[in-house]
């Protein structure tokens, strides 16, 4: 439709990568891994990660781009403030981190000893 009516030059589509931040409690199972990890460490002292099923990837070695919610908002506002920009964009930090790094950061933020189970 947008192409047919010539509106593509006026449209921005944003694909957000793994956004995390405060107030995720209402999201249920859709909470970020950061929030889920926090809850696991708080409640059980351990963080559960899935085992790797693919050779070449160690357990917890799979990578994702994690984006803090305030950064997601800043990027969204950029597009609202720049009406001359159009297109489809990936919105992320630009830096992939693996699950082990994420888990270790959760333990460090909580001042706990790292205990990851696969």
- Computed over alpha carbons, the radius of gyration is 18 Å
Order of helices and strands: EEHEEEHEEHE
Shape descriptor reads elongated
Sheet/helix structural class: alpha/beta
Q: Unreliable segments (pLDDT under 50, ≥5 consecutive)?
A: none
Q: What percent of residues adopt helix (DSSP H or I)?
A: 25-40%
The CATH homologous superfamily name equals NAD(P)-binding Rossmann-like Domain
Number of domains: 1
In what range is the share of β-strand residues? 15-25%
Counting copies of identical and different chains, the oligomeric state is single chain
- Tell me about the largest β-sheet: 2 strands, parallel
How many E-type strands?
8
CATH topology: Rossmann fold
Give the rounded overall mean pLDDT. 95
Please report the distance between the alpha carbons of the first and last residues: 47 Å
- Provide the spatial order of strands within the biggest beta sheet: 1-6
CATH architecture: 3-Layer(aba) Sandwich
User: If helices are DSSP runs of H or I spanning 4 or more residues, what is the number of helices?
Assistant: 3
CATH class: Alpha Beta
Characteristics:
118 residues; Rossmann fold; two-stranded parallel ribbon; 3 helices; 20% strand
Care to describe what's here?
It is a single chain. The chain is of the alpha/beta class and 118 residues long. It has a single domain, classed as 3-Layer(aba) Sandwich (Rossmann fold), CATH 3.40.50. Helices cover 31% and strands 20% of the residues. It is built from 3 helices and 8 strands, in the order ββαβββαββαβ. The protein has a two-stranded parallel ribbon with strand order 1-6. It has a two-stranded parallel sheet with strand order 2-5. It has a two-stranded parallel ribbon with strand order 3-8. The longest helix is centred in the middle third of the chain and has 13 residues. The protein is elongated and about 55 Å long. The protein starts with 11 loop residues before the first strand and ends with a strand.
